[in-house]
């Protein structure tokens, strides 16, 4: 566990936030997501404080798709962050958490009329406009409501990020945003600039997720400024805001080598500062949207080990009581994780096993070839870094109820999402008899 921010207690059990994970598993059952809230706070502060130290006006918006729940958004609110939502459901959750509306930004490549209405009626801080259809809807709605709103234009800069194809978003062949190079962004600019009631504030770009190199972010910013320079020369446009997206990588396994978060911020800011001098404009506000980097390493998942199947000379399958229903990432992206037997952390590892989920899918494997001590059914497995895109991408496949979420801070545990019951699983089913 050397690479994870957790301790082992005298009993040899894994601890999180000062509490024994085995006690938590007994108290709340498994599978169980547990977050160390102090790590969420640390992550928030790493971004916010770096901007502050650099003296740059900024908004750090938590990308709530990574993990949205009322309690999570309350913590993020306490830390003074802004919030990125991409749907009515995420916006609804933010409103339930009483998140300050002026700090909420709405994203999406196919926002519905209803979604935009909800955003405008609730006076959220900013809509990141993605396409021409959306511009028309926003104009209509603002007219009807006799309101104005801040808008950023999402552009795709044509950057290939070194990550899984499914989480690449800045490349040219993408469903997101206006293409920066084929005239689309210019066309959108003409519609938005000097608008009567759309307050066009600047550009947004997000190049992808789980990115480790600062050079990709820097190249994207270079391309934004190439366009901004043109728009300044041709129209005198100067952006108030530049949103450079999220995607800052975290460590899942030893293959991942993220930088400390301040390094990403410093690289972005220093690049923007150079361009600002070059184009001779005022420093815009810098916005970023980390999701995984806020929630990812703060969360672990606890499972109970059940069946053990040895195939001599081939492999040992250790099955747990969850799987792709609570963590889709291995099945969807071949994502890799590390884990430990939480009640045997100090015991020497003796062999390698593969951790299987309990869904009816051969692809429901959580970890291949994990070194473990001698395992028995009933042991508790902890998988690390499951705080982002775990609960948020969970499903009811095979009619599994969704797992509970517990927050731990300063040695105190609090359930923040209840475990679903079987009644919850069938609650929308109607009879056909
Ligand atoms: N901003 C925008 C516009 C995004 O599309 C995303 C992620 C983020 C921010 C936050 O990215 P992050 O900092 O969390 O990497 N389900 C996938 C990740 C998909 C992310 C989609 N957009 C996964 O489990 O890896």
From TrEMBL:
Q: What class of enzyme is it?
A: lyase
* GO function terms (MF aspect): diaminopimelate decarboxylase activity
Report the cofactors.
pyridoxal 5'-phosphate
Binding-site residues, substrate: 292, 329, 333, 361, 389
Positions that bind pyridoxal 5'-phosphate:
247, 289-292, 389
Which PROSITE patterns does this entry report, sorted A to Z?
ODR_DC_2_1, ODR_DC_2_2
Protein name per UniProt: Diaminopimelate decarboxylase
Encoding gene (name): lysA
Q: Which residues form the Orn/DAP/Arg decarboxylase 2 N-terminal domain?
A: 40-295
EC code(s) of this entry: 4.1.1.20
> One of this protein's Pfam families, by short name?
Orn_Arg_deC_N
Signal peptide boundaries: none
Assembly description: Homodimer.
Q: Which pathway, metabolic or otherwise, does it act in?
A: Amino-acid biosynthesis; L-lysine biosynthesis via DAP pathway; L-lysine from DL-2,6-diaminopimelate: step 1/1
Domain annotation Orn/DAP/Arg decarboxylase 2 C-terminal: ranges = 32-387
Q: Which residues carry this modification: N6-(pyridoxal phosphate)lysine?
A: 65
Name the UniProt key words of this record, in alphabetical order.
Amino-acid biosynthesis, Decarboxylase, Lyase, Lysine biosynthesis, Pyridoxal phosphate
According to its UniProt record, which reaction does this protein catalyse?
A: meso-2,6-diaminopimelate + H(+) = L-lysine + CO2
* Source species: Virgibacillus byunsanensis
Q: Which family does the UniProt entry place this protein in?
A: Belongs to the Orn/Lys/Arg decarboxylase class-II family. LysA subfamily.
* The protein's role, per its UniProt record: Specifically catalyzes the decarboxylation of meso-diaminopimelate (meso-DAP) to L-lysine.
